Amino acid sequence: MGQEITTSQLRKWLLSYAxxxxxxxAHLTELDTAIGDADHGVNMRRGMGKLQERLKEEKQSDNxxxxxxxxxxxxxxxxxxxxxxxxxxxxLRAATSPTNGSSIDLVQLTQMFRYGLDGLQQRxxxxxxxxxxxxxxxPAVEAMEAALAAHQSPxxxxxxARQAAHLGMKHTIEIEARKGxxxxxxxxxxxxxxxxxxxxYFLFETAAEVFxxxxxx
Amino acid sequence: xxxxxxAITQSLRGMALCHPDTIKVHFDPDYVERTAPCPSGKVAxxxxxxxxxxxxxxxYVGLGMLDAACPGPIFTSPSPVQLLAxxxxxxHGGGVLFIVKNYAGGVLNTELTxxxxxQEGIDARxxxxxxxxxxxxxxxxxxxxxxxxxxxxxxxxxESGYSLDxxxxxxxxxxxxxxxxxxxxxxxxxxxxxxxVNLADDxxxxxxxxxxxxxxxxxxxxxxxxxxxxxxxxILDDLPFAPGDRVLLLISGMGGTPPLExxxxxxxxxxxxxxxxxxxxxxxxxNYLTSLGRGGYTMTLMKLDDELLGLWxxxxxxxxxxx
Lengths: 217, 323
Prior knowledge:
The structure holds two protein chains of two kinds. By secondary structure, chain A is mainly α.
């Protein structure tokens, strides 16, 4: 697993994520209007605006852990609502995963996502099939772990994560919400894609794009 | 009136102007802290809450009660950024205890704040307040008047030098010994949303929450004794309270009920309490936990023992409670 992802590549990834979310604001609003309180698009766009400002500041730490922690703090205050603390928890936990100081390898990237996922589940108390962001992130992390165990190349690992995240996101259309505001709708939530699962999908879509492009395996 | 957002800021500023010897207000992030100096090593007690429940929690900041409080937007939890700023301001090396009413947003934001504080090496814990017997499942019970009581007990314990562990334990005991229920007598006023459907003159809503959560509409043609017959037994049966128990009684208006009506309610409560041979050792009647301008009240009973009674009686100097 030769590829090293530096803090500056992590920054490129999150800038790309922020741009993707902003492009999809209307889509997220539309999804949340159907089964939530219609604020996910606006909240995520506001959070991503703050994230862009933060990531473009001159003074940046090269340390992966402090970088991820500062991302967490920015998202907590920038997004607000329930999604702010949840995305904040994801990155705050990710910040406690093992690193090589100013870079991580693919094993550590997978661990970073795993730490974030475990934190999210602990904080939000959601399980798979509750129709939440867990339905995107959990299969993505599991796909990365399986691909790593099978000694796949970084490009294959990242593609597997993206594909599993996409399937997980689409799977939320078929299931009934058991957590979050959509759960008040019960069976009426079936047939709608979960907005949180959708915003979380873009993490893996942009990771596959950015890290594969910069990788030289 | 003013816009909902800026009204909170202006109200905080007004409150600080009214109580300059007791509290200081910090803006952006918003929190209220006590002016009384803290001895090094004292446990800090902090509570956050959506605005609209005043005086909870900001009116309880001061010596012998809260070290800091964070007001969120109307009926919405304060953010971890506010809560963490309050931690930094209030921590004096003895650790931090949050008093949290059992609502999803408050718990989520507090747990995240605690995680951040622990990463910084600050010991932080929380006690969940879930005293509302209108909700059958204990895990889903909302926090009502026991939040006010828990802030007093925790603050007194911390002021008298209890460790963080001991403060957590006695506060958990106070909550476990408390039960509450709410009655709505008219509809909630929510900013932006306007008024809900009115209740008939001879009807109440039994088991309402403090954010407009609906209860069960009941017709009460016999007046107060009938209301008390509906609200007191579920409280007494749940703990259960037994004849001879010493109790603290808290009757709080929701913001739109005149004191005259609260005392009417109290008369009927006291009569039924006497019939059950419960000894009301301490009591508070007034607006201690409100729901903006809603008509209605909550009743809370806490079963007292010597330790809880001593902590309740310990000196307190806040904008609302002072003895």
